[in-house]
Amino acid sequence: MKIGIIGTGSMGSILIEAFIEANAVTPSQLIITNRTPKKALFFKENFPEIKVVETAYEVAAKANLIFLCVKPLQFHPLLKDLRSILTDDKIVISITSPISIEQLQSIVPCKVARVIPSITNRALTGTSLVSYGTTCTTIDKEKINNLMKHISTPVTIDENITRVASDIASCGPAFFSFLVQSFIDAAVRQTEITEDEATQLASEMVIGLGKLLEKRIFTLPTLQERVSVPGGVTGEGIKVLREEVGDMFDLLFQQTHAKYFEDLEKVKNDFE
């Protein structure tokens, strides 16, 4: 099986590196391209067997599974250029949320799917969000699911929760990274701890928290109950969080959805 990657930016690069590290594919199975050739050729330095081609058309011609790792507004012209080569035995996979399965199916004759990865997939962990086109067979779904299992836990989602699921699984690492950094910065401002010391302690804390949840030793609520004893220091800290967090996350989801709907309108005009 040949895997095509069109676009070797942030997420395209993560898929390439994660697939190889996880032994999901061999470098020789990958066919990649990028509008800036230098970015694609970079992978040849570490993985000489990767096939780097000049055009997206060449990727589509040679690959069985074709990941489109480009910006939403680049999809329509790209798919128009490729559709003559996209025979019904191929599967085009979008990694972006504003492009619906229905829109993909409206313009190409091949099978389509959507796989929204997360930066956590680079560590061969976290989830990937998967949706399938109506013409995908059970075998097609198994093929995609088995590929993504090497680097993530694939979760099949309905179209109506695409944005919020992506906010949690894909954007979430950046959101919580920001909160942890703010936590570290405040510790440095308010006490004599150094930034390096606070960063090390906070990083190890996040890793340990993840392992507790992974091993199902605690749930999020039971972990809070165990650490926050009545009259203790943790309880005082939780009290501040309850008072200050307020509707912050409600506003976050409102803002991400507003941008999502704005992108949907721009994409819709292209496809219409």
Q: Quick one: biggest sheet?
A: 8 strands, mixed
CATH class of the largest domain: Alpha Beta
Order of helices and strands: EHEHEHEHEHEEHEHHHHH
CATH topology description of the largest domain: Rossmann fold
Poorly predicted regions: none
Q: Helical stretch count?
A: 11
Fourth-level CATH superfamily of the largest domain: NAD(P)-binding Rossmann-like Domain
Tally of distinct domains: 2
Q: Tell me the Rg in angstroms.
A: 21 Å
Binding site for NADP(+): 6-11
Protein name: Pyrroline-5-carboxylate reductase
Enzyme class: oxidoreductase
Pathway: Amino-acid biosynthesis; L-proline biosynthesis; L-proline from L-glutamate 5-semialdehyde: step 1/1
Polypeptide structure, described:
With 272 residues, the chain is an alpha/beta fold. The protein is built from eleven helices and eight strands. The chain has an eight-stranded mixed beta sheet, with helices on both faces. Helix 4 (75-82) links the parallel strand 4 and strand 5 (91-94). Helix 7 (162-190) packs antiparallel against helix 8 (195-214). The mean pLDDT is 96.
Which terms summarize this structure?
amino-acid biosynthesis; ProC C-terminal domain-like fold; 55% helix; eight-stranded mixed beta sheet; cytoplasm; 272 residues; alpha/beta; Rossmann fold; oxidoreductase
Write the layout of secondary structure elements.
Layout: E1 3-6, H1 10-21, E2 30-33, H2 37-46, E3 51-52, H3 56-62, E4 65-68, H4 75-82, E5 91-94, H5 101-107, E6 111-116, E7 127-132, H6 138-149, E8 153-156, H7 162-190, H8 195-214, H9 220-227, H10 233-245, H11 248-271
Parallel strand pairs: 1-2, 1-4, 2-3, 4-5, 5-6, 7-8
Antiparallel strand pairs: 6-7
